[in-house]
Amino acid sequence: MLDEDKEALEHPEVQIGRKASSKIIGYVISLLLTALAFSLVYAHALPGPALQGVIAFLAGAVICVQLYFFSNVDLRHSQRWNLITTILTIPLFALMIGLSIWLFYELALRVQISAGLF
Amino acid sequence: MAAGADPTRDTPELYSESPPDTLSMRTFGFWLYMLGDSLIFTALFVSYGVLQNNYAGGPTASAVYTPFHFLFESVLIYFSVFSVAMGMRGLARGKRSALMLWFCLALAAGGIFLGIEIYDFNSQVALGITPLRSAFLSIYFTVVGTHGLHVAVGLLWIVVMLFQVGLKGFSAAVIQRLLCLEIFWLYQGFIWACVFTFVELWSAI
């Protein structure tokens, strides 16, 4: 085996994924959160807007759980830039989605013959 | 005092003898690429939010969606992501056979996921539920289909890596590709969490 291959195999990026327990925990929690979201909607457990908020939160939780347990994105020094760039991309998602939906909602109101048909 | 400066001083290191850590840099670069790739899906989710009620007299969301298929697909795609992560544990321990076994499981789960999606699309098209029917159906097929396309590319990538690990072993270049594949597959899980929640569940409320 070449030196550079050995070096790559012992690299922190590779060795960070050594723990099996964290991956199993991540998978089980993801399944539980998904089942919870599905059953809440199936049973219509809450009024509409509240339910939308709760399951959106659960989707965010699934992503955070997988980031932490599968990809080991945490406060560790070697993972810091992955975390920073991911967090700094969230405002981009929020701005794109929020502003576009707002724009099209207002547009729809203004082009209807009578407002409120939308 | 000697010419050498105080080694404990806290100034940035402007010059270093050690070679750059290309493995970390490339992995981080691919991470940034996947964040950019997520913006494609952001645009698609925006379009879905705008068009989701434009049925044009055609079938509504509740007539098109198959909730239990979506639930089963979630179990499969998360299992596939989990399997790739477990395969990377095989890499960390230097065990080729463990990695290949877990990657085969990831391939199987991802394959069944894609099979269900194609089956659903086929049975919908047979009922006249096509992207041409309404704006809602156009964006539904685009969102789910774009994710499915990513999954198909990822499955091809897994097959290629199975061959490369089998033939070349854990060389530096193969390890680099495996790290990028893990990131790519992880993101498909994230996107699916959003598809499942904002496309399927929200429309059922």
Q: Architecture of chain B, according to CATH?
A: Up-down Bundle
CATH topology of chain B: Four Helix Bundle (Hemerythrin (Met), subunit A)
How many whole angstroms does the radius of gyration of chain B measure? 22 Å
Q: Residue-averaged pLDDT of chain A, rounded?
A: 89
By DSSP (H or I, 4+ residues per run), the number of helices of chain A equals 5
Please describe the biggest sheet of chain A, giving its number of strands, its sense, and whether it closes into a barrel: none
The helicity of chain A comes to over 70%
| Termini Cα gap of chain B | 75 Å
The string of secondary-structure elements of chain B, in order, is: HHHHHH
Count of extended strands of chain A? 0
Question: What is the string of helix and strand elements of chain A?
Answer: HHHHH
Quaternary organisation of the protein chains: heterodimer
Helix content of chain B: over 70%
Shape of chain A: flat
Q: In the CATH hierarchy, what is the class of chain B?
A: Mainly Alpha
- Determine the CATH superfamily of chain B: Cytochrome c oxidase, subunit III, four-helix bundle
Task: Tell me about this structure.
The complex is a heterodimer of chains A (118) and B (205). With 118 residues, chain A is mainly alpha-helical. Chain A contains 5 helices and no strands. Chain B is globular. Chains A and B meet through helix 1, helix 2, helix 3, helix 4 and helix 5 of A and helix 1, helix 3 and helix 6 of B.
Write the topology of this structure.
The complex is a heterodimer of chains A (118) and B (205).
Chain A: H1 3-9, H2 12-15, H3 20-42, H4 48-69, H5 80-111
Chain B: H1 22-51, H2 61-64, H3 67-92, H4 96-126, H5 135-168, H6 172-204
Helix pairs in contact in B: 1-5, 1-6, 3-4, 3-6, 4-5, 5-6
Can I get a quick summary?
The complex is a heterodimer of chains A (118) and B (205). Chain A has 118 residues and is mainly alpha-helical.
